[in-house]
Structures are given as structure tokens and as C-alpha cells.
Amino acid sequence: MEINALLLAAGQGTRLRPLTLDWPKCLMPIKGRPLLEYWIFLLDQLRIQNILVNTHHQKEIMEEFLNRERFSGRVSYTYEPKFLGTGGTLLANKDFFRAKTTLFIHADNWCHCDFQGFIDFHRYHRPRNTVMTMMTFRTSTPATCGIVELDNNGVVQKFHEKVDNPPGNLANAAIYLLEPEVLDVLQDLPNVSDFDIEVIPSLLGKIATWENTDIHRDIGTLDSLLEAQYDSITTLGWSNPDAWQRDFEKNTIYKKIENTKNNY
Q1: 142/85 Cα distance (integer angstroms)
Q2: Fewer CB within 10 Å, N- or C-terminus of the chain?
Q3: Would the pTM of this model clear 0.90, i.e. be above it?
Q4: In whole angstroms, how large is the CA radius of gyration of the chain?
Q5: Which residues, at least 6 apart from 254, have a Cβ–Cβ distance to it below 8 Å?
């Protein structure tokens, strides 16, 4: 099974302002490395070599990061002058994913789990007639997440996107493995923007789930970004620092995070 990956990295990170006024959310430091590098390193370890990253906010900074020699040949990027949304980006780049399994990741999430187990479940064990696998996790704030209701086979029957008093705490992690049939659904929604709100309801009964019982955080708030610094994980990226990494270690974003924390 050949897998191509789409890393969504175009968001403005409004909940992290003022930090994101001059630095991208997906390049926020976690244990001294930018979050997006963690994702690219993880995909490299999984031998996923065809990676596409979308950009919009802080385009120049993002492209300087992505043009590093260590990403050459494995990472490409596409700039969106107008923000297309999660579903719109996937539809706009459908030819990149056609006839392949797609690993579709909201790259501003901080996540650690058995990713090979996630892929193996999708490949060998997902229920018959499902066309995608959604990673899930248990959340302490279900009203801020998309909450799923499953049947006895772990297939999504109902989906509640950020509603008051949702029926449970099993949440959508916004990390998916998609089969080509999902692109067929997208093509019937030519004006699609939000994957979760507009596409998932069309696939109820066809979405398998795999639960991440380790670490999952949306680092879209200062609290979550700070908590991620203390998560127990050792391997974040390549051990040999390049020029970009050495500059990053002196980046003013560290001081700005500390100042924001002190004024929080």
C-alpha cells in the first residue's frame, strides 16, 4: 500500500496570538524543535516519502523552513493565496493523491502514538466497507472537539462537531488514513471547505476508528503549548543540526513564549 501524506500547515493560529502574529503556529517549538519537523521526521521513519505541505499564513517563513536540504526529494509544498480550508486543500491537490492511500494530518496537532500500528490497522484490520480510518483520543474538554459515536465494530455512526453537552469524550484527532473513494466524495462537493463539517457527515457508516491512548494535544492555546514541553518523548527530529536549526535555537519566539506565559 503506497501512502502519500498531506500536512495541513496553513492556519493562522488565532488562539495563540500574539505569538502567531510573526511566527507560524505549526513551527512553534516543542522541546527545542519546530512541531512540523516532528511530523516530517515521523513520516520519514515510516518510510513515507511523498509529503505535501500547504502554506498560507507566514508564507516566507514556512518556505524557508521547507526548503532545507534535509527535506529535498521528500517534501513539496503548495501555497494558497486564499485559504482553502481542510477539505478544499485536499480537493485542490487530488491528483497528488489519486489511486493512493492518503495520510491526512492537521499538522498543528502534537501527537505521539504507535503510528505504525495505526497504519497496520487501516491496512489489515479495519472493518469491511470502510473507506477511511479516523484516529481518536479521549478528551477532558469534549465540547471543544468533534465527538464520535461508534457501533460495536468501532465504525462512526454519529459525529458531533463542537456542540454543548456532547454524548461522550471520544474525540476526532483530525488525523486520517483515506482511501481513493474519499476523493470521489469530495468531487461531488466542488465548493467544499471544511473536511470535518462537510465531508465526514457524508461518510458515516464508512469510517473506521483507531484510538490513540498516548499523547494528543491541539497546541492552539498557550496552556497546551506549554504542557507539550513536558510530555515524555525523546526522539523529535534529526540529531545533526543544520543552519536553519541553529538559527531556530536563537529565535525570539522562545522569549516571546516566556513573556506571554508570565503575563498570562
Answers
A1: 23
A2: C
A3: yes
A4: 18
A5: 29
β-strand 132-138 against 170-178: which pairing, if any? antiparallel
Largest separation between any pair of C-alpha atoms in the chain: 52
Enter the C-alpha cell of residue 222.
Answer: 498557550
Amino acid symbol at 142: P
Cβ-based neighbours of 108, under 8 Å, separated by 6 or more = 8, 9, 11, 13, 25, 26, 35, 218, 219, 220
Measure the CA–CA gap between 21 and 247, rounded to whole angstroms: 19
Kindly list the averaged pLDDT for each block of 10 residues, start to end, along the chain of length 264.
Answer: 90 80 91 92 92 92 93 91 90 86 93 95 96 95 89 94 87 95 85 90 95 91 88 80 90 82 66
